[in-house]
Design goal:
This is Choline dehydrogenase. The protein is 27% helix and 20% strand. The protein is α/β, with parallel strands linked by helices. Helix 1 packs parallel to helix 15 and helix 12 packs across helix 14. The chain is globular, with a radius of gyration of 23 Å.
C-alpha cells in the first residue's frame, strides 16, 4: 500500500495521462499519482522521427497486440500497436497533427453531449498548441504541444499533389481550421527535428513537482470499489501486488484498449463477459468494450520511373550514411520523416457532406511495417474511410491483467464501408492516371489492376487493408444504452471515477486521433477541477508526497 491517500490517481501515462498529470498537479495542494504500465521513454529510437520503424512491433515500446481473425480481411489477424512507454502511443505514432473536422464535434454534441461541440473543443486545441507560424489564425502559440513543418520534400509527392488537384482535390496549407478538404503536406508534432511526444511536452517540464508521483512498470489490475465509489486501484509493479487509495477521483487514461479492460476486470461491464471469467458483477454496463471504431487504411502501391524514392535511397550503405549525416547536422531528411508526409482529404462520392477519405502518401513502399522496402522505386497512397459504420469490441481474455485481450474491430462488416472502400480504390487510380503523374509512368503493384468490379474491389480492400492505429470509442460518452460515461466523463453509477482518453469518443474523428485525445484530456482536467471546487470535500491530512520517478 502506498502511504497516504491521493487526490487524483491517473491510470496510464500516454497522450491523455501526461496532460492530465500536468494540469491536475498544477495545484500544489493536490496529491497526484500517475501509473504507467510501460517503461521510461529513454529509448533513443523514440525521439528520432523515423524511429517508429524500430518502436512499432518492439516489445520494449509496443504492447504488440493482435486482433482476432477478421472475416472482412480474408481471415487475417493484424498487429495492433499501442504504446508501452511514457507518452503511450504518442511515443511511437506518426506524429501527424490533426484536429479533425468541426462537424465531428458538433455531431458529438448533437448526440446529447453538452459542451463538446467545435466551439467548445477549439479553445482547448489552441490553448495547448505551440504552432510554428505566429501569423496563422485559429492556432495557438506558446503552449506545450509543438507543431512544425516537415523538414523534407520529394518530387514524387509534389507530383501526387498536382495530380490530386487535377481530380478536384485542391491544394491547401492548413488541415486544422475545421474543414480539412484538400491536399497538402502534414504538419507534425516535432521540435527541431525530434519527436515531440506527450511525455516530452507535458510530463518532463513538471517532473520535479513535489505533489506528483510517477510510477513506471505499474500495470493496473482492477479498481477497488467501496460503497459504490472508486476508492483505490490495485496494480502490479515488479511482480508485487500494490494498492493506492484515492480520496478524490480515479481517472482512467489507458486508451481505447486499456481503459475498458481495467473496468471489466473490476466487475464493470457486460454481464455475460464478466460471468464467463468468474468476475463478480459490481456494475453492469453493456457498453464497456463495445463501439470499437478504427480507420482501416488501404495501402495502394505504384511502381514509378524517373524520380527518387526512399526504396532506392535506403538500399545502399552510402545512401544510409548520407541520410544519417543529414539528420546529424541538419535534423532534416529521411530520418526526420513522419511515416506519412503528404495528406489529402476527399469525398468518396456526392453523398458525403464533408470529406470522408484521408490519404497518407509516402515516397516508399513495403509489404508491411517491419519488413524491408521493395527493391524498386515506388510510392504508396494509403487511403482510409474517415467515418466507418463497422463496429467492433474489446474484451478481457481472462481475469488477470497479463491475459491477452480479445480485439475484434470487424473491419468492412458494414455494406457502406465496403462501398466506400471500392470508391476509394477507384479515386486513387484516377489520381495515379492524371497528367501530373504521367511522366513517372505509375504502374499499380498493389492490389493490381485485375481487381475491377465492385465485388473484386471489395475483395482487394480486404487483402490490402490494415489498421492505421486509431482505435476509439470503447467507453463511449452519451446517453444511450451503450454509454459508459456521461458528458462530464463520469462512469455511470460509480462515484469518483472518470474515463478521459480516446475510448470516450462516441464517433471517431475525421483524421488522426492523437491530438483530439489531448483535447479530451484538457477538457477533462478542466471539468475535474470545476466539479471538485463545487464539491469542496472535507480533507484529511496526508504525509507530504515525494516524487517517485521509477
Amino acid at each position: 500500500m502506498l502511504s497516504g491517500e491521493f487526490d487524483y490517481i491517473i491510470v496510464g501515462a500516454g497522450s491523455a495521462g501526461c496532460l492530465l498529470a500536468n494540469r491536475l498537479s498544477a495545484d500544489p495542494d493536490k496529491r497526484v499519482l500517475l501509473l504507467e504500465a510501460g517503461g521510461s521513454d529513454d529509448y533513443p529510437w523514440i525521439h528520432i522521427p523515423v524511429g517508429y520503424l524500430h518502436c512499432i512491433g518492439n516489445p520494449r515500446t509496443d504492447w504488440c497486440y493482435q486482433t482476432a481473425a477478421e472475416s472482412g480481411l480474408g481471415g487475417r489477424s493484424l498487429g495492433y500497436p499501442r504504446g508501452k512507454v511514457l507518452g503511450g502511443s504518442s511515443s511511437i505514432n506518426g506524429m501527424i497533427y490533426m484536429r479533425g473536422q468541426a462537424a465531428d464535434y458538433d455531431r458529438w454534441e448533437a448526440l446529447g453531449n453538452r459542451g463538446w461541440g467545435w466551439r467548445d473543443a477549439l479553445p482547448h486545441f489552441i490553448a495547448m498548441e505551440d504552432h510554428f507560424d505566429a501569423a496563422r489564425p485559429l492556432h495557438g502559440h506558446g503552449g506545450e504541444w509543438r507543431v512544425e513543418k516537415q523538414r523534407l520534400s520529394w518530387e514524387i509527392l509534389d507530383a501526387f499533389r498536382a495530380a490530386a488537384s487535377e481530380q478536384g482535390i485542391a491544394p491547401v496549407d492548413d488541415f486544422n481550421t475545421g474543414d480539412n478538404a484538400g491536399c497538402g503536406y502534414f504538419e507534425v508534432n516535432q521540435k527541431g527535428g525530434w519527436r515531440w511526444s506527450s511525455a516530452r511536452a507535458f510530463l518532463r517540464p513538471i517532473r520535479d513537482r513535489a505533489n506528483l508521483t510517477v510510477l513506471t512498470g505499474a500495470e493496473a489490475d482492477r479498481l477497488i470499489l467501496e460503497n459504490g465509489r472508486a476508492a483505490a486501484i490495485a496494480f502490479m509493479q515488479q511482480g508485487m501486488p500494490l494498492q493506492a487509495r484515492c480520496r478524490g477521483e480515479i481517472i482512467l487514461a489507458a486508451g481505447a484498449i486499456g481503459s475498458p479492460l481495467v473496468l471489466q476486470r473490476s466487475g464493470i461491464g457486460p454481464a455475460p463477459l464478466l460471468a464467463s471469467h468468474g468476475i463478480e458483477p459490481l456494475r453492469i454496463l453493456p457498453g464497456v468494450g463495445a463501439n470499437l471504431q478504427d480507420h482501416l487504411q488501404l495501402r495502394l502501391v505504384f511502381k514509378i520511373r524517373g524520380a527518387p524514392t526512399l526504396n532506392r535511397r535506403a538500399a545502399s550503405w552510402s545512401g544510409k550514411l548520407a541520410m544519417a549525416w543529414e539528420y546529424l547536422w541538419k535534423r532534416s531528411g529521411p530520418l526526420s520523416m513522419a511515416p506519412s508526409q503528404l495528406g489529402a482529404f476527399a469525398r468518396s462520392g456526392p453523398g458525403a457532406a464533408t470529406p470522408d477519405l484521408e490519404y497518407h502518401v509516402q515516397p516508399l513502399s513495403l509489404e508491411r511495417f517491419g519488413e524491408p522496402l521493395h527493391p524498386f522505386p515506388a510510392f504508396t497512397a494509403s487511403v482510409c474511410q474517415l467515418r466507418p459504420e463497422s463496429r467492433g469490441h474489446v474484451a478481457i481474455g481472462g481475469a488477470r491483467p497479463d491475459a491477452p485481450p480479445l480485439i475484434q474491430p470487424n473491419y468492412l462488416s458494414h455494406p457502406q464501408d465496403q462501398r466506400v472502400a471500392a470508391a476509394a480504390i477507384r479515386l486513387t487510380r484516377r489520381i495515379a492516371a492524371s497528367p501530373a503523374l504521367s511522366r513517372y509512368l505509375p504502374e499499380e503493384y498493389r492490389p493490381g489492376l485485375q481487381y475491377r468490379s465492385e465485388e473484386q474491389l471489395i475483395d482487394a480492400a480486404g487483402r490490402i487493408g490494415t489498421t492505421i492505429f486509431h482505435p476509439v470509442g470503447t467507453c463511449k460518452m452519451g446517453r444511450d444504452e451503450l454509454a459508459v460515461v456521461d458528458d462530464r466523463l463520469r462512469v455511470r453509477g460509480i462515484a469518483g471515477l472518470r474515463v478521459a482518453d480516446a475510448s470516450i469518443m462516441p464517433a471517431i474523428t475525421s483524421g488522426n486521433t492523437n491530438s483530439p485525445t489531448l483535447m479530451i484530456a484538457a477538457k477533462a482536467a478542466q471539468m475535474i477541477e470545476q466539479d471538485n471546487k463545487q464539491a469542496a470535500p472535507i480533507r484529511t491530512p496526508s504525509p507530504p508526497a515525494k516524487e517517485t520517478w521509477t
